[in-house]
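Need residues for this backbone.
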């Protein structure tokens, strides 16, 4: 699956440790690269770096990057060495023509890291709730519809009881059966995975204590009695920067969705969350289980670290759980695989 990444203004980047050395570059890194239609930031960074997630360390601070438009097809990226460190600068290409000269310039409005068509099918369909939050009281309940039916579809008017004060949120996800998530090594309750059945938009108060709402989208049958909780702004969930995770050690608990084999472009649930200082945008490596080996001569036991299997990008966190997208993998990724802070190559 192709990931479409948008280039980000360095003016919006946090302070970086500009210490990328020449060993971080691929041996076949081009000195000049012309951006092509369909390119992604991750793919372009991978042409220059062994670890594509280190791309912010490669960009040079120059006028184009400090206040840029998006990088467009036809732009030329030039690699150079500055004080012994690699830098990538951009030669901006004039794109205006008589036919489009009067059109407004396209500007970067917000940091968007991943292609929404890859991420939104997951964050629209699934959510995480902390272990100490009762899913039955998380936000509200769908009580009935304009007509008495068991199930409701897109466009139907429904009525809900909402726990949102006098000014509740506008968008609410519906779900029916929350799935408890437990740890692998320790059988602890870490939280809930909820599969959304749909999205409703609140129109205003109805008679009594109910609110009138309309079903905007359905992912599965929406039924009377479904739970509701406030929706999320999709754009905000895709605006973050890749960065190495802090020193952590965790496990993949399960996949998200119906896939049996896990690979690039699929989502997993981790047993790490906000309490582990994990945030959206953190990058993690997936590794095989370590092996215990015995020296036949001395009899001493040693531990061999598991082989690297892939790279994850954290998309969403709760207190003890996280959603992470598989960015790349060299071997199938499975439940129980270990995740840790990435190592530079």
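Answer:
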């Amino acid at each position: 699956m192709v990931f479409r990444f948008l280039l980000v203004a360095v003016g919006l980047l946090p302070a970086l440790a500009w210490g990328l050395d020449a060993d971080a570059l691929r041996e076949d890194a081009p000195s000049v690269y012309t951006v092509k239609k369909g390119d992604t930031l991750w793919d372009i960074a991978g042409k220059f770096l062994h670890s594509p997630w280190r791309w912010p360390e490669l960009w040079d601070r120059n006028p184009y990057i400090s206040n840029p438009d998006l990088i467009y097809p036809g732009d030329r990226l030039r690699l150079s060495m500055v004080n012994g460190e690699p830098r990538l600068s951009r030669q901006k290409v004039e794109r205006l023509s008589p036919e489009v000269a009067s059109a407004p310039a396209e500007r970067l409005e917000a940091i968007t890291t991943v292609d929404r068509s890859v991420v939104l099918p997951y964050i629209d369909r699934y959510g995480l709730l902390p272990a100490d939050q009762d899913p039955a009281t998380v936000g509200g309940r769908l009580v009935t519809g304009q007509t008495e039916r068991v199930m409701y579809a897109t466009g139907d008017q429904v009525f809900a009881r909402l726990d949102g004060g006098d000014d509740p949120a506008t968008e609410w996800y519906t779900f029916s059966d929350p799935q408890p998530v437990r740890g692998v090594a320790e059988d602890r309750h870490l939280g809930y995975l909820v599969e959304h059945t749909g999205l409703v938009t609140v129109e205003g108060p109805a008679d009594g204590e109910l609110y009138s709402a309309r079903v905007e989208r359905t992912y599965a049958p929406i039924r009377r009695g479904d739970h509701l909780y406030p929706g999320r702004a999709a754009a905000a969930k895709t605006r973050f920067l890749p960065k190495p995770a802090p020193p952590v050690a965790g496990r993949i608990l399960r996949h998200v969705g119906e896939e049996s084999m896990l690979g690039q472009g699929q989502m997993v649930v981790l047993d790490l969350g906000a309490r582990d200082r994990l945030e959206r945008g953190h990058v993690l490596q997936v590794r095989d289980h370590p092996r215990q080996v015995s020296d036949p001569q001395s009899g001493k036991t040693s531990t061999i670290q598991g082989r690297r299997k892939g790279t994850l990008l954290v998309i969403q966190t709760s207190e003890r759980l996280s959603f992470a997208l598989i960015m790349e993998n060299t071997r199938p990724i499975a439940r129980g695989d270990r995740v840790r802070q990435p190592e530079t190559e």
